[in-house]
Specification:
Helix 8 packs across helix 15 (about 365-380) and helix 10 crosses helix 11. This protein has helices spanning about 10-20, 25-35, 35-65, 70-80, 85-120, 125-140, 145-170, 185-195, 205-210, 215-240, 250-260, 260-295, 295-315, 320-345, 365-380. It has one domain (about 10-380): Up-down Bundle (Amino acid/polyamine transporter I). The protein is mostly helical.
């Protein structure tokens, strides 16, 4: 295989983790603070199980093909027959994914730019510009550079998280109620956690980078989502324990509660988290442009990244709104299309055994569970909290 695209297991897992870990994890503590310990733990477990199931469905579909493709092309192959209406649906799905990804990427630039303002005391437009240069610059060099960058960013995030957690134990803890909130706040938290664990569009990238050993793809997905889950749990509970109050962008309140050093370190943590998401999402979007429009990589990269910068500097939406609405749109789209794609893929497999199969766990009952779970997450993502 092309060594410029060859990834190790950990690099592939970090590419997967990077797509989900970012703006969403910063919003989880605020939403978790509106609920109690029992709802938070229950939601984390349910969201993890449903998320794992859907991601492994994508792994099976991707590995049943000779070459990994982005989800939109998989949908075209198995769900939209070659007809005039099938072609229209393909382009509609393509447009929805592009708009959703643009919203996500603009949100990452906005959040990162605001963090750089806090760290460096620079104008906001300068922070957004610096973010774009660093974020889009890594993606310019392709999958291997992204994999290496994701690996070192995830390791750095883990070290910072350990330091912040140790620093938190020197402060008085808040009392977290066992039960609180309402059905609305529970659904809102569930929707955000589902979004935080959603890394579906990075699965084809993991498969591409692990083409030298396809049996590792499922393990990279499990490891990547596991990293996201651990980070999300630690951030949520540590912030709820020490932050006064829990802010919508969690690291700000957490850092202020511990001390100035923690605010700077926490802002660095959040900046790296947003960068990892930008790298994975923008690369996925660039490859979507390549496959759908037959563009070269450089042109696809430019169209995947430059509009997100222009959206970010226009300042037309807040950070949390970007995260919640984009997450809801993505959840609805994937929940409706991925399980049926798995069913059709199995029907067309001609009895061939894939490198990986969910077997019984990919049956009709579990496909319906996944669809229902993601639709609930979508509802939670768009519920007004105020």
């Amino acid at each position: 295989m092309d060594h410029k695209k060859k990834l190790t297991l950990f690099e592939a897992a970090c590419v997967v983790a990077g797509l989900g870990f970012g703006g969403s994890v910063m919003a989880v503590p605020y939403l978790a603070s509106l609920n109690g310990i029992v709802p938070v733990i229950s939601i984390m477990i349910i969201a993890y199980l449903i998320s794992i199931l859907l991601h492994l469905m994508v792994v099976e579909v991707v590995l049943r093909d000779d070459s990994p493709q982005q989800l939109i092309e998989i949908f075209g192959k198995y769900l939209f027959i070659k007809s005039w209406w099938g072609n229209i649906l393909m382009w509609v799905v393509f447009a929805l994914i592009v708009v959703t990804f643009y919203a996500l990427l603009a949100g990452y630039i906005i959040g990162s730019g605001e963090l750089l303002v806090n760290i460096l005391a620079i104008p906001l437009w300068t922070g957004k510009t610096m973010t774009y240069v660093v974020a889009a610059g890594v993606v310019f060099f392709g999958l291997k550079t992204i994999g290496l960058s994701e690996k070192y960013a995830i390791i750095s995030i883990a070290l910072v998280l350990v330091a912040l957690s140790i620093g938190s134990f020197g402060k008085p803890f808040n009392q977290i109620p066992v039960f609180s909130g309402s059905l609305k706040t529970v659904l809102a938290l569930y929707g955000m956690v589902m979004f935080c664990l959603s890394c579906l569009f990075s699965v084809p990238q993991a498969a591409e980078g692990l083409a030298w050993n396809k049996r590792l793809v499922s393990w990279s997905v499990l490891l990547g989502i596991g990293i996201n889950l651990v980070f999300t749990i630690v951030v949520a509970f540590m912030v709820m324990l020490v932050s006064h109050p829990v802010t919508e962008f969690a690291i700000i309140g957490w850092g202020r509660a511990i001390g100035k050093w923690a605010l700077i370190l926490g802002s660095t943590f959040a900046f790296l988290a947003l960068l990892t998401s930008y790298w994975s999402v923008s690369y996925a979007l660039a490859v979507i442009f390549m496959e759908r429009l037959n563009w070269g990589y450089r042109l696809a990269w430019l169209v995947a990244t430059l509009p997100t910068f222009l959206m970010a500097i226009s300042g037309f939406a807040g950070f949390l709104d970007f995260m919640r609405y984009a997450g809801g749109a993505t959840a609805v789209l994937l929940a409706v299309l991925v399980p049926p794609a798995l069913k059709r893929c199995r029907q067309k497999s001609d009895g061939r055994e894939p490198v990986f199969s969910l077997g019984f766990w990919g049956g009709a009952a579990f496909r319906y569970i996944v669809i229902g779970g993601y639709l609930l997450g979508a509802i939670g993502s768009v519920l007004p909290l105020k």
